[in-house]
């Protein structure tokens, strides 16, 4: 997980000028996939809105790079 420990929000990845567009997309896709897997494993995200909100923010950040 290249984003883990360094970025606390998807927007942090978008703002990192040291990353290429492709690197940002790859990191956000990995974060999204990890979050989806975690939510499935924990009962479809029943543990709160925070996880669902983070997933929405990751998807929004990805969309902004893929336009």
Question: What attributes characterize this protein structure?
Answer:
globular, 67 residues, mainly alpha, 0% strand
What topology does this entry show?
Layout: H1 10-15, H2 21-41, H3 49-66
Helix pairs in contact: 2-3
Description of the molecule:
Helix 2 packs antiparallel against helix 3. The chain has three helices and no strands. About 65% of the residues lie in helices and about 0% in strands. With about 70 residues, it is an all-alpha fold. It has one domain.
Order of helices and strands: HHH
Radius of gyration: 12 Å
Note the main sheet.
Answer: none
Number of strands: 0
Short description:
The protein has one domain. The chain is 67% helix and 0% strand. The protein has helices at residues 10-15, 21-41, 49-66.
